[in-house]
From TrEMBL:
It comes from Kappaphycus alvarezii. This is Small ribosomal subunit protein uS9c. The keyword Plastid applies. It comes from the Eukaryota. The lineage of its organism: Eukaryota, Rhodophyta, Florideophyceae, Rhodymeniophycidae, Gigartinales. Belongs to the universal ribosomal protein uS9 family. Keywords: Chloroplast, Plastid, Ribonucleoprotein, Ribosomal protein.
Amino acid sequence: MTTILQNSKITYFGTGRRKTSIARVRLVPGSGKLIINGFPGESYLQFSPNYLRISYGPLKTLGLVKEYDIYVQTEGGGLTGQADAIRLGIARALCRINPNNRKALKSEGFLTRDARIKERKKYGLRKARKAPQYSKR
């Protein structure tokens, strides 16, 4: 489901993932506010300029920072994973708004899903790859 007409405003959806974080993003034409899990985006991301820069990246690339209100439901992982998931969700929603946005977002790397996740622990090892200390006798 890409768009829903709600109170004569079109809503665009995008889903982003990073590590174990999942972000469901809704873009609604508005004044540019960011709401994450019911909290203002700045306070949820702990006023970190790095997390805010990551989250707003796709909008800044297209010059649409003050054009859309962003509503995000995110879960799992930490703030770094969630910020990257939000960025991917916003980029995907912007591609649904206008397919011509895809080229600019793709060249900046905003549409690439970072597939790096924690490797599972194997039996006989202490961690995913760390072996117990070798003893000759």
